[in-house]
Each structure stands twice: as structure tokens, then as C-alpha cells.
Specification:
Blueprint (H helix, E strand, L loop, with lengths): L13 H11 L6 E2 L16 H11 L15 H12 L4 H4 L3 E7 H16 L6 E5 L3 H9 L4 E5 L10 H10 L5 E5 L12 H13 L3 E6 L9 H4 L1 H8 L4 E6 L1 H4 L6 E7 L6 H22 L6 H10 L2 H31 L7 H5 L4 E3 L4 H11 L1 E2 L5 E3 L8 H12 L1
Parallel strand pairs: 1-10, 3-4, 3-5, 5-6, 6-7
Antiparallel strand pairs: 2-8, 7-8, 9-11
Helix pairs in contact: 2-13, 2-14, 3-13, 5-6, 7-8, 8-10, 14-17, 16-17
The protein binds 4'-deoxy-4'-aminopyridoxal-5'-phosphate.
């Protein structure tokens, strides 16, 4: 048995703790701005209409059963998932330089990638994470024993990107470091590099032979445009980088609990097409071994739903429409929140609310202000002042703006 003191009590996950506190609050005014899941204008989870249709198709399929998927997952799903990221006519796909393995949503994809790098990566093994980043990145990479460093990301002054700090740190980092990049809708800040800034970041990384590790959890959910939200990844792929991508379908399909995701490896273009394909074959064989020991094979239901949509032109078009509904509502809430704060002449500038993109926004509210919002106004958000835009709706946005105004003054 364990020595009595070998297993210390761990703190509760802050996000799940926040959600518990919200649920226990009996105030009719309560607002949940902590959640990382889309809510409709009635503050309810939204099953995408296209997902309902795919579900219907699946349930009426006499061939459907509950057998195991292959180790690498549902190929009809993973191949379309790669096209979604890299573009249908991407040279990397045509040259068979890509490997795609279905994962336990985005978290599992980040983990599989981390495990793969921990086992095989021969460059400088330090993993650079943005400061701040999705908190789970720290846990996932340190769990596989990779050393972690951070690069500056968010500027407190501008509430935008600290692009100079970011580039300076990447320039100083040891050659061949692993750099984790949020492809779009950066969590938690909502701040993304512009296309021009992405080109600058790519050129620094190329000069330093850094290894890009993309995490994409919001493609199509950020701007409403799948191609636009994949712009950074496509630029790096076109530049010929060897890279990996962790892809989640939780938000853009609303398939959170189904754990539909994918991990992709892209061999460098410089190796030549034949060698690129050879590298991919070897990588694929090793990923299969890792996958086998971790989960044996991935879950089937969500992958089938996504696959039905991704492989049907009409359903795909409907999905894009659903994505525009979600991203459009969120962009609209950003506009309303900013407009109300400006109308109230709340101290400070609020343009960052509409400049930022995706599910989250870094408001700039301090920890005491966040706690006051919770105790006095029943508004729940993480201590760093991050709000989930999905928690806002036409009935509570003015209440929230008025409460922000009161705690800021
Ligand atoms: N990466 C980032 C940056 C995220 O925000 C999320 C979702 N919170 C994920 C990965 C993975 O989420 P999931 O495992 O639910 O796909």
C-alpha cells in the first residue's frame, strides 16, 4: 500500500469548481460566464440541427453497430478532418505526407502528440506555451515529462497581442524548440495574431528550426468561416514545416461529450515527396502503438456523426450555416456588451471586447472585481477575468454590463 503521506490532496480543477458554485447559487439573476461550451440565446445547450439530422441518419442505418473502430479510428472521418485543416488540394495530402489518428477529442489529441514527441523528438525538448494558455496544456505536457517554458502573448496595456515579446522569446529559445500555437480563437484571451503577424511568427520559427504544435479547438466557430480559421495552419504547411495538429470537434459540432477529435502529423515538404511519404508511414506505425496502449481504439459515435456531415455536400453546407449561427451570435454579444459599457461610460476602453474573437474574452477585470461580481451580482467567471461569450444572451447582457460598470468604478 501507499505510505500514508504519498498521495497528497490535489486542488479541485478551478473551472469545474466554478461550475459547481454556479449550480449551487439560487439567485434568479445568476449568469455563468465560466462555461466553455456554446449556449443559445436562452442559455441552453444547442444541438446543431445538422447534428440532429446526422444522428437520425445514423440511427436508421441498418449496418450501424457497436464494433470497435480500427486503432487509428474512422478513416472516413479522419481523412476529411485533415482536409478541413489543410485544404482539399493541399500538397501534403496529395503527397501522402500526412498521418491522421482519431483521438479522445482535442485533449486526447494534445496528449497523443505530447506523448509522441516525448518519445521521439530529437530537437530541443522544451515546450513553449503561450502565457497565458489553456491551463490543461501545462498538465498534459508536464505529465509526459517534457520541460515547459512560456512565451509572452497577451499585452495588459493593449489587451491585444504582445507580438514583439512573442517573437523575441522565440528568437532566444534554443534551436528546434517545440512551440504550441493556438490556431485560432486563443483560449483564454480571445486574441489572435493577424495574418501578417502569423507570417512573421512562421519566419522566426523557420529561421530557428522550431517545431510547430498547433492546437485547434475552434475552427469555424471563431469567424464562422472554416477556411479563414485554418489560415495559420495552412500558412505553416505551405511553408513546408514539419508539424503536428491537435484538432477538436467539441465546439464546432457541439459534440463535447462525444469526444470527437483527431491528431495529425505532417512531414516536412523539404524531404521530397517520396521520403515525406516514408516518414509518414513510420510515424503512423508508431502512433498506432502509442494509441493501442493508451485507448486501444477511439470512440465511435461522435466520429460517425461528424463523418456523415463531412462526407455529404448538402449537410456540409448546413453545418457551415450552423457555424455562422453560433459565431454570429457570439460576435453580436461582443458588440452589445461593448456598446452598453460605452453607453454607461464605464472607465477604461472596451474595444478589446470586439477585437477579440471566439468563445472567450479577457476583460481586464481584476481578481477582486471578479470576486465582487460573484458575491454581489451572481456573475461567475474565472479569476483571471476571462469571460465566456456564450454565457451572454439578449436577456442578461445589459445586466452584466451594468454590473461590470459598478465593480470597475
Ligand atoms: N485546446 C484548447 C485551447 C481548448 O480551449 C480546448 C477546449 N476547452 C481543447 C483543447 C480541448 O477540448 P476537448 O478535449 O473538449 O476537445
Amino acid at each position: 500500500s501507499f505510505p500514508a503521506d504519498a498521495v497528497p490532496q490535489a486542488p479541485e480543477d478551478p473551472l469545474f469548481g466554478l461550475s459547481r458554485a454556479y449550480k449551487a447559487d439560487t439567485s434568479p439573476d445568476k449568469v455563468d460566464l465560466g462555461i466553455g461550451a456554446y449556449r443559445d440565446d436562452n442559455a441552453k445547450p444547442w444541438v446543431l440541427p445538422v447534428v440532429k439530422k446526422a444522428d437520425e441518419i445514423l440511427r436508421n442505418d441498418p449496418e450501424a453497430n457497436h464494433e470497435y473502430l480500427p486503432i487509428a479510428g474512422l478513416q472516413a472521418f479522419t481523412s476529411r478532418a485533415a482536409e478541413l485543416l489543410l485544404g482539399k488540394s493541399a500538397p501534403a495530402i496529395a503527397e501522402k505526407r500526412t498521418v491522421s489518428v482519431q483521438s479522445i477529442s482535442g485533449t486526447g489529441a494534445v496528449h497523443l502528440g505530447a506523448l509522441f514527441l516525448a518519445k521521439f523528438y530529437k530537437g530541443s525538448r522544451t515546450v513553449y506555451l503561450s502565457n497565458p494558455t489553456w491551463a490543461n496544456h501545462h498538465q498534459i505536457f508536464s505529465n509526459v515529462g517534457l520541460p515547459i517554458a512560456t512565451y509572452p502573448y497577451f499585452s495588459k496595456e493593449t489587451r491585444g497581442l504582445d507580438v514583439d515579446g512573442l517573437k523575441a522569446t522565440l528568437e532566444k529559445a534554443d534551436e528546434g524548440s517545440i512551440i504550441v500555437l493556438h490556431a485560432c480563437a486563443h483560449n483564454p484571451t480571445g486574441v489572435d495574431p493577424t495574418p501578417e503577424q502569423w507570417r512573421e511568427i512562421a519566419s522566426v520559427m523557420k529561421a530557428k528550426k522550431h517545431f510547430p504544435f498547433f492546437d485547434t479547438a475552434y475552427q469555424g466557430f471563431a469567424s464562422g468561416d472554416l477556411d479563414r480559421d485554418a489560415g495559420a495552419i495552412r500558412h505553416f504547411a505551405e511553408e513546408g514545416f514539419e508539424l503536428v495538429i491537435a484538432q477538436s470537434f467539441a465546439k464546432n459540432f457541439g459534440l463535447y461529450g462525444q469526444r470527437a477529435g483527431c491528431f495529425h502529423y505532417v512531414a516536412p515538404s523539404g524531404a521530397g515527396a517520396a521520403e515525406g511519404a516514408n516518414i509518414a508511414t513510420r510515424v503512423s506505425s508508431q502512433l498506432s502503438i502509442l494509441q493501442r496502449s493508451e485507448i486501444s481504439n477511439p470512440p465511435i459515435y461522435g466520429a460517425r456523426i461528424a463523418s456523415i456531415v463531412l462526407n455529404d455536400d448538402a449537410l456540409f453546407a448546413e453545418w457551415q450555416e450552423n457555424l455562422r449561427t453560433m459565431s454570429g451570435r457570439i460576435i453580436d454579444m461582443r458588440k452589445k456588451l461593448r456598446a452598453k459599457l460605452e453607453e454607461l461610460q464605464t472607465p477604461g476602453g472596451w474595444n478589446h471586447i470586439t477585437d477579440q474573437i471566439g468563445m472567450f474574452s479577457f476583460t481586464g477585470l481584476s481578481e477582486p472585481q471578479v470576486l465582487k461580481l460573484r458575491t454581489d451580482y451572481h456573475i461567475y467567471m474565472t479569476k483571471n477575468g476571462r469571460i465566456s461569450m456564450a454565457g451572454l444572451n439578449s436577456r442578461n447582457v445589459e445586466y452584466v454590463a451594468a454590473a461590470f460598470d459598478k465593480v470597475v468604478r
